[in-house]
Amino acid sequence: MQSELNRHFGIGESLVFVDGEGKLPKAIMRDSLGHELELYLFGATITQWRSPRGVELLYLSPDCDFSGTKPLRGGIPLVFPQFGGGPLPAHGFARTNNWTPTKSSTKPNGEVVLILELKSNEATRSIWPHEFSAELEIKLGADLTTTLRVLNTGSTEFQFQNAFHTYFKIDDLTSTFVSPLNGLTFLDSTKNRAPGSESREKVTFPGEVDRIYVDAPNTVTLRDDSRPLTFAIKKNNMADAVVWNPWIEKARNMKDLPDDGYKNFVCVETGNVAKPITLAAGSTWSCSQKLEYF
Ligand code: BG6
User: Fold this and answer.
1) Mean pLDDT of 159-172
2) Would you say 97 and 50 are in contact if contact means Cβ atoms under 8 Å apart?
3) pLDDT tens by residue, 99-111
4) Average pLDDT, integer, range 114-132
């Protein structure tokens, strides 16, 4: 049991810290409606979100590496301060650092809130020479809202990209689609980010899909007709939506994903990818994602 964490931040049945896989500290949050959420302090990664009936809404790979050295495969990893490949490790370092709880509370309407923090430290400075403080607020209720706040604590401006990299659990990839993305420009990451224009009303998954939809609408839906289940993905202060499914070949090459794991998830990510954010010294910036299901 994580007694220190429970003493400072635990709230009865609403928020408990336990030993997760690999003995990594894990928070379990429960709202008054019966929704449940699991989150690892390693990477501030939400690894599960359940409906009051116990339906799992997020995909977590059964081959996920919980050694505390690799990003967790599934749930909602946090991408910051870099998206994709670049000078930093893939998708940045937020998802491979240990975050610290700073505040927890329950609201009169039954929602439960946990706030985690990551500050620049020797390890981050050695690969990204900027001073910052990042805060992730997780609010669990009828919806799941995650808010990222970044404060530039240094004396010069810096740039960053960010994303909430959500792995939505689906039952049947062949009956799953994302909409509305028609009319949008996308950058195709399977073709060196070649630009294209989306002409389909429903974006389906007949093969590998890895696209950055630029300036996407603030609400996008992911529908699995087989369950049937619809997710509404709502973004605030983030320009883009990334749609990803690795399909057969890529999945085979991923150690932390079973060969047929690609059939059970689609990632729809909200973020600032095509155009990085510039944050002046002393300034704060924030964005949020709200997930609903019906
Ligand atoms: C997506 C990218 O966001 O994440 C893909 O668009 C990438 O190109 C995928 O393959 C998974 O990345 P990672 O680093 O978690 O394996």
Assistant:
1) 98
2) no
3) 999 999 999 999 9
4) 98
Report, in this order, helix, strand and coil percent for the chain, each rounded to 5: 10, 50, 40
Specify the pLDDT at position 1: 64
What residues does ligand 1 touch, defined as CB less than 6 Å away? 71, 84, 90-91, 165, 189, 210, 242, 244, 269
32: left (phi over 0), alpha (psi -120 to 50) or beta: alpha
> Confidence class of residue 85 from pLDDT cuts 50, 70 and 90?
confident
Report the residue among 69, 165, 262 best suited for mutation to probe ligand 1: largest number of ligand atoms under 8 A from its CB. 165
Considering only CA atoms, which residue is closest to atom 10 of ligand 1? 246
Probe residue for ligand 1, chosen from 73, 82, 167, 244 as the CB with the greatest number of ligand atoms within 8 Å = 244
Beta carbons of 287 and 138 less than 8 angstroms apart: no
Run of H or E residues at 39 = strand 36-40
Respond yes or no: is residue 91 known to be catalytic.
no
Q: What are phi and psi of 246, to 5 degrees?
A: -75, -25
**Is residue 269 among the annotated active site residues?**
yes
Pick the residue whose CA is nearest to atom 6 on ligand 1. 210
pTM of the model: 0.98
**Nearest alpha-carbon partner for 68 in 10, 2, 24:** 24
Around Cβ 118, how many Cβ atoms within 10 Å? 23
